[in-house]
Design goal:
With 133 residues, this protein is α+β, with helices and mostly antiparallel strands. 41% of the residues lie in helices and 23% in strands. Strands 1, 2, 3, 4 and 5 form a five-stranded mixed β-sheet that branches. The longest helix is centred in the first third of the chain and has 17 residues. The termini are far apart.
């Protein structure tokens, strides 16, 4: 590791609450936090901090889907949201919500599980959401 990090667990929980409130308002089932997806999301956020990149595809060419396959995680559909800022970890939710593609992932009725990983390191909050069914 190049940078020391701290996991922002309270922000992860708040983002879940905000997202589920929007889903419930729209008549959708709330997402449940999945521990495996949380670990993948935290790993993704940390990887982007440690290796100074911001992309769904890692510098080595792998994606979160490769990691899910490597650990034998079973799903039929999956998606990923990523965001970062230097001010507030909960603001990551608003960044996702205000982006049509990211909002579509959060409101996708095919998903029933999520992992949220918010990490602070190298002067920024990095957030990842991993969705599955």
């Amino acid at each position: 590791t190049k940078y020391s990090i701290t996991v922002q667990a309270s922000a992860e929980q708040k983002i879940l609450e905000l997202m589920n409130a929007k889903r419930t308002e729209a008549g959708l089932q709330p997402l449940t936090m999945d521990n495996t997806l949380v670990q993948v999301a935290r790993y993704k956020s940390n990887d982007m901090i440690q290796n100074n990149f911001f992309d769904h595809t890692n510098p080595d060419g792998t994606k979160w889907t490769n990691w899910l396959q490597d650990i034998g995680y079973k799903y039929t559909t999956t998606g990923e949201n990523i965001a970062y800022n230097t001010s507030d970890p909960v603001e990551l939710f608003n960044q996702w919500w205000n982006s049509p593609g990211h909002r579509a992932n959060m409101m996708n009725s095919s998903y029933n599980k999520v992992g949220i990983g918010v990490i602070f390191g190298n002067g920024k909050y990095m957030g990842s959401q991993e969705f599955s069914n």
